[in-house]
Each structure stands twice: as C-alpha cells, then as structure tokens.
Amino acid sequence: MNLLVDLGNSRLKWAQSAPSIWHTGVAVHAGENMQAVLDTAWGKLARPEKILMSSVATSDACGTLLAWCQRHWSLAPVVIHAQMEQLGVQHCYAQPETLGADRWAALIAVRGLTKTNACIVDCGTAVTVDALAASGEFRGGAIFPGLQLLRASLLQGTGGIRAVQGKADSALACSTPDAVAGGTLQGLIGGVTRLLEEQMRALGAGTQVFVTGGDAPLLLPRLKIPAKEVPDLVLQGLARIADTL
Fold first, then answer.
1. For 107-126, how does the pLDDT look when each residue is reduced to its tens digit (9 = 90+)?
2. Options 3.90.1300.10, 3.30.70.100, 3.30.420.40, 3.30.457.10; CATH of 2-79
3. Residues with active-site annotation
4. What is the DSSP letter of 158?
5. Starting from the edge strand earliest in sequence, which strands make up the sheet with 126-132, in order?
6. Model-level pTM?
7. Phi-psi region of 60 (alpha: psi -120 to 50; beta: other; left: phi over 0)
8. Cβ–Cβ under 8 Å, residues 119 and 199
C-alpha cells in the first residue's frame, strides 16, 4: 500500500493506494498543531510501502510531516518536484522546479485522463488555472487569491468591513456581510471564467475543463463553462508518478 500526500496551505489530503484500493482522507492543518493533526489522521494507518508527497505548505509543516513519518514508520517520503518532462507532460518554464508540485501533479493526472486539450482549475487557498495542450505541452497558467484570502483581505485592508460570512446569493445584497460574500464569490467565478476563456482560445477546439480543490463545489454549479470536478486530482497525479518509482 502506498501513501500519497498532498500537503496544501490549509488542508492535508491523502490517499492509500494499491491495486483495486483507493481510500482518501482530508484534515485541516492551517492554524492547528501539525503534530496533533497527524496523530489523529494517520495514527492508526498501517505502515505504507512508500510515501509520495507534493507540498506547497510552510517548511515547518512539511518538516513536521517528514519527521512524523520517519519516527512512526522509519520511512522517508519522496517529495516530488516538477520536471522538464514526465509521463507525457512537457514543461514550458525555464526553471521547471519553480512550478508548484501540486500543479505539476494535477497536470500529470489530467494527462492520464485525457489526450485532448485541457484546462485545470484548482480552487484552494490560492486559485490556479493551467493549460495543457493535446500534445502534452504545459502552456502556462495563472494564480490569484482563493475565496477565503479574498475575504480575509477585506477584513485586513479596510476599516469599515468587519464581517464577511454572509449569504452569497445575489449581487444586489442588502447587508455588508452579504455584499462581501456575494462579491468575492462572483469575483472568483468571473476571474476563473475570464482565464478559462483566454486559455481555451489559445488551446483550440475540444478543450476539456477539470476542477479540483476545496472550493470546487462552490464554483462548479455557477461556472457557465462545462467542467468536470475531480476532487482528488493531485493525488491521482501522485499515483501515476508512484507507479514509475
């Protein structure tokens, strides 16, 4: 059994993977004691054969996870980094290792799901929108703040807005919390839509759109562009990479 780990800025996601077996889990670690989070989430897991991990979290969170695996299982996780070419995906960055490992794993996953042009939207703490050509060339992408960062920025950067947890049902809100909730959600949808439209024009006909990340369920029903949600996209990419090691 392999343990596949996606350590994000806010959430720890994992999958136990073996032939005909795929068990996933998730835990929030932002603002929490990472040691305690791991004790609760993984304390009863059987020792995996190998651990493969992508991480965009702080060095402290990543270091705690690596030490936990060594202490409990005497096993060092393999931390992946983007490559110039891997499993049919070719990089466009001059320095491929500077691309987030989660974005690279998602590209690897999508290449295994389709051979058509594809766009990948990951709605987490940050939102990424990436373009993958049918040839396998990663054509680049964009990053902007996710929903919670957008709302937090209003609390931190203004003097008059003190509440953001309103109803996001309308652009004609009649309270400040509702106006913030609706404005940030609609802004997120508008930003993602604009980026997708540009990327789909560049890629050409037959482009599929895949959506993943914690806020994907909020985005997907409101997105006018046809898209498919794949909640464990990064983990699927890690599974493909693990098969080559």
1. 999 999 999 999 999 999 89
2. 3.30.420.40
3. 102
4. -
5. 138-145, 126-132, 118-123, 208-212, 228-229
6. 0.91
7. alpha
8. yes
CA angle 54, 81, 150 (to 5 degrees): 55
Going by their DSSP bridges, the two strands 85-86 and 21-28 should be labelled as unpaired
3-class DSSP state for residue 212? strand
Asked if pLDDT for residue 160 goes beyond 70, the answer is no
CB 204 within 8 A of CB 124: no
Give the tokens for residue 29. 């670690």
**What integer is the mean pLDDT of 154-162?**
67
> What is the identity of the amino acid at 199?
Q
43 SS3 class: coil
Q: Is the pLDDT of residue 169 over 90?
A: no
pLDDT score for 162: 61
